[in-house]
Design a protein that fits this description.
221 residues; alpha+beta; 2 domains; 4-stranded antiparallel sheet; 5 helices; disordered C terminus
Length: 221
């Protein structure tokens, strides 16, 4: 305590310039001391990350080298090419079955999709269908690549429809609720809602589904 009083008395007798230099010196000491505690652990962590990155890059290089060796062998062994293609097909088939079982992919035929939409529209007499346009089927799952430049076979297709209806707010709301509650695996989005003339409005959106059929979707009349 006495030592602190002595230092305090000496500090009080200093000029303003001396006080500033003393305070600056203290700050420099504190900054360098704390930076040692902060920077050193960060540097150690950075060295660890750099080491992990080098190991990962080495592993990637080894895999690339092994892949090149396999490709070289394939180029001189047509039978091995066929065996590997069959193996890829089997693995793809198993993966597809697992996705279907987990309901990651829910399939619907174009007839079922058309019937669902048609039924909902007939249930809503206050709605007027303004637009119903099928979009080209989009390949979303292909079989393993074919040999000799042959085109890969599509296994699944995504079908889309552009729909636009007009009606009262409550009629449109009911229509959307029925679509959402439908048991069919339909995906819908890209909504554009526009008030035409109160109480009427129009809504346009896209309706999509996944199917094994490449045919376009259409509503039968």
């Amino acid at each position: 305590m006495k030592q602190w009083q002595t230092l305090n008395a000496k500090y009080s007798q200093m000029t303003l310039r001396e006080k500033a230099l003393t305070l600056g010196t203290i700050l420099v000491v504190l900054i360098f001391g704390s930076s040692h505690l902060i920077i050193e652990p960060m540097f150690v962590q950075y060295q660890g990350l750099s080491s992990d990155s080098r190991k990962l890059q080495n592993s990637i290089n080894e895999v690339n080298q092994q892949r090149q060796e396999v490709e070289d062998k394939l180029a001189t062994n047509p039978l091995l090419q066929l065996e590997l293609q069959l193996e890829r097909l089997n693995l793809q088939h198993i993966d597809l079955e697992e996705k279907l079982q987990q309901k990651e992919l829910s399939l619907i035929s174009h007839e079922e999709m058309a019937r669902t939409l048609q039924y909902i529209l007939l249930e809503n007499s206050q709605l007027k269908l303004l637009k119903l346009k099928s979009k080209p089927a989009k390949e979303i799952l292909l079989a393993a690549e074919q040999q000799h430049g042959e085109t890969a076979t599509a296994l699944l297709y995504q079908h889309g429809m552009e729909v636009e209806v007009r009606g009262t707010y409550f009629a449109i709301l009911k229509f959307l609720q029925q679509l959402e509650q439908s048991q069919q695996p339909l995906q819908w989005g890209n909504f554009i809602y526009e008030v035409v003339e109160y109480p009427y409005a129009s809504i346009s959106f896209e309706l999509n589904a996944v199917s094994t059929d490449k045919e376009f979707i259409g509503v039968k009349k």
